[in-house]
Amino acid sequence: MNASNIAGTTADVRFDEVLALIHSARQQAVQAVNTQLIELYWQVGAYISRKLEQAEWGDAVVSQLAEHLAKTQPGLRGFTRRNLFRMRQFYEAYRGNEKVSALLTQLPWTHNLLILTQSKHPQEREFYLRLAVQEKWSTRELERQHKAALFERSITQPPKVSPVLRQANPAALEIFRDAYIVEFLDLPGGHAETDLHQGLLARLKQFLIELGRDFCFVGSQYPLQVGGRDFALDLLFFHRGLNCLIAIELKVGRFEPEYLGKLDFYLEALDRDERKPHENPAIGVLLCASKDGEVVEYALNRSLSPALIAEYQVQLPDKQLLQAKLHEFYALNIAQGEEE
């Protein structure tokens, strides 16, 4: 490398710092604009709500307001009759809930509108608000998670984990799921384990989004050597929040108890030979096409490893069925509460 190239490289590094400052400032500016916009919509919604509640206005006046704004402010967008009523709904859905209100300005209006219109209960709205902020979902991914009934599944189908994992790392219960939806793989009905494995690698970005934001990919067919033998772990990830390696073994059939023995072996090898001194013990995930709940419970109950068993589903679930189960879940909880 000649002197001019070296000088150019040095300059590039120095300029990169300036570019980083510009990029950061732009992001802050965009966030500031979004915050002001959401606060404006909130204030307009509050104003309209008060006028309607005090019977000073009727619905027709809101239409007149929309027409007036269109005439006097021709460049102003987003203040149609429909949107004005959405602003009112937005305000009335969250007023008095400071805990949730703090999340609203962290999301664009399109995200807020989607959550507002597609969520039926306050608990569901808060669930998607928190996850959308935490996971930084795009509008498309947020809509996908709604269609995949993530809220209903999280309430009615908690993850199946071993007692060791539950006791040693309770935060994992909020991170892992009982089922992962991989409809984006377009797998045929009679797919092989190789098809699943290669599909996940080809769509790794989508799979990482489905797993969660703090999952980082480490390797596929990750080599482990024990004694004089070589082994290969299907997929290895690292979770930044849990500060540990995550081993995922894939099975295209239903869960069988003997699968846990192999996973235990891999976790022991990871902890002995791969884990860094500052990291927590590795967690194992058996990702199967199906599982029997009672068999899973028996198998996990005596497991001494931090492990869980989950399903992968190649199609979006029946959301109406899951909503019915959620309704039954709430009704049962209410009944039990009354008995106590």
Concise structural overview:
With 340 residues, the protein is α/β, with parallel strands linked by helices.
Mean pLDDT: 91
Instruction: Bin the helical content.
Output: 55-70%
Q: What would the principal axes of the Cα set say about the shape?
A: globular
Secondary-structure-based class equals alpha/beta
Please work out how many helical segments DSSP would assign. 14
What is the N-to-C order of secondary-structure elements (H for helix, E for strand)?
HHHHHHHHEHEHHEEEHEHEH
What's the main sheet like? 7 strands, mixed
Unreliable parts: 6-11
| Strand elements, count | 7
Please state roughly what percent of the residues sit in beta strands, choosing from under 5%, 5-15%, 15-25%, 25-35%, 35-45% or over 45%.
Answer: 15-25%
Distance between the termini: 79 Å
| Rounded radius of gyration (Å) | 25 Å
For this entry, give a set of tags.
about 350 residues; alpha/beta; 7 strands; about 15% strand
Task: Describe the 3D structure.
This protein is α/β, with parallel strands linked by helices. Helix content is 57%, strand content 16%. It has helices spanning 3-53, 59-72, 81-94, 98-104, 109-118, 122-135, 139-147, 150-156, 163-168, 193-202, 204-211, 259-273, 293-301, 319-339, and strands at residues 160-161, 179-181, 215-226, 229-239, 244-254, 283-290, 307-313. Strands 1, 2, 3, 4, 5, 6 and 7 form a seven-stranded mixed beta sheet that branches. Strand 6, helix 13 (293-301) and strand 7 form a beta-alpha-beta unit. Helix 8 runs parallel beside helix 14 (319-339). The protein is globular, with a radius of gyration of 25 Å.
